[in-house]
From TrEMBL:
Keywords: Coiled coil
GO molecular function, one term: dynein intermediate chain binding
Bilayer-crossing regions: none
GO-annotated biological processes: flagellated sperm motility
InterPro entries linked to this entry: DHC
Coiled coil: 115-142
Any one GO cellular component localisation term in the record: inner dynein arm
Species of provenance: Equus asinus (Donkey)
Gene name in the database record: LOC106838177
Record's keyword annotation contains Magnesium: no
Protein name as catalogued: Uncharacterized protein
Length: 303
């Protein structure tokens, strides 16, 4: 009699794996669903009871059967909800990023500033392409998991899958079109960028010369008015520096210069840390530059 019970328990020892699984974090959806399918099939085949020979002992399995069926079904629902949630959130995030690329690629024209922005975005897309494709494939695998392992054909999920595919194809097409356009314009773009870079450098030099000119150094000038003008010059200077940085990045993208070497060095007299306006106390100070050097060099790097 005891031997029969031991044999029965040994035969159904696999159920301990179910209890070990309960409460564990979800790591591999396919593995989890496969385990669930196997366990649910085996649980359904557990006999309702075991009666030993001579009917000396009756071992009921109904409670264990009902408990495991309920827990396994609950886990299946939790996994499905998790997969659907991850599928939706990842799809939305990827489509947002791809749409951002698409919008930039679609606005490309002969304007040098638009071309500069598009070239930087195209370079970014090329560097990220493998990662973007991997994310795309992972999301598609989540959709396949829902279809094949949960047998769920939800209209909302299918629409999301179609939308993601449409955005991905649009991204690939617009990326290709933008690349071809920039390639066809490269012979004219590089000289134009060089002209704009030179003009930006000249503007920076002019702003510094203006800030150090007579009117701003004359203590007889109205103090508040001079301060406002210097602050305005400082903002204009910073905007020009930002513009120059964008031009340089675009030039690096077009020429493929990752570690550019200096071609031009423009010595620019660096304004003092403080430009003093007025002769009465308290003395008003307007900072136009925080450089600690007596001179600064604005260096452009391109091939």
């Amino acid at each position: 009699m005891l031997w029969e019970v031991q044999e029965f328990c040994k035969e159904h020892h696999w159920m301990t794996g179910i209890y070990e699984f309960l409460g564990c974090p979800i790591k591999n959806y396919v593995l989890l669903v496969s385990c669930l399918n196997t366990w649910q099939a085996r649980v359904s085949n557990i006999p309702a009871e075991l009666v030993t020979k001579g009917r000396l002992l009756l071992l009921s399995c109904r409670d264990v059967h009902a408990e495991l069926e309920s827990k396994l079904e609950s886990i299946r629902k939790d996994i499905l909800a998790q997969v659907q949630n991850e599928c939706w959130s990842r799809s939305q995030q990827l489509m947002t990023e791809l749409t951002d690329f698409i919008e930039v690629f679609q606005t490309i024209n002969s304007d040098i500033h638009t071309i500069s922005r598009c070239s930087q975005k195209l370079n970014e897309a090329s560097k990220q392409y493998t990662k973007l494709e991997e994310r795309m494939e992972y999301i598609r695998s989540l959709h396949e998991l829902i279809r094949n392992h949960f047998s769920l054909f939800n209209a909302e999920n299918e629409a999301l899958d179609v939308s993601l595919l449409d955005v991905w194809e649009a991204f690939q097409f617009e990326k290709s079109q933008a690349s071809e356009f920039l390639l066809s314009k490269q012979h004219a773009i590089v000289p134009k960028l060089q002209q704009l870079i030179a003009a930006a450098l000249a503007e920076l030099e002019g702003l510094i010369e203006k800030a150090l000119s007579g009117p701003f150094m004359d203590p007889a000038q109205e103090q508040r008015s001079t301060e406002r003008q210097l602050i305005s010059l400082e903002r204009q200077f910073q905007n020009t520096v930002n513009h120059l940085t964008e031009l340089h990045r675009a030039y690096a993208v077009f020429t493929g210069t990752e570690d550019p070497r200096p071609l031009h060095h423009h010595p620019v007299i660096d304004p003092p840390n403080e430009i003093r306006v007025g002769t009465q106390d308290p003395v008003s100070c307007v900072s136009l530059s925080q450089s600690q050097e007596s001179h600064t060099f604005i260096s452009l790097f391109y091939r």
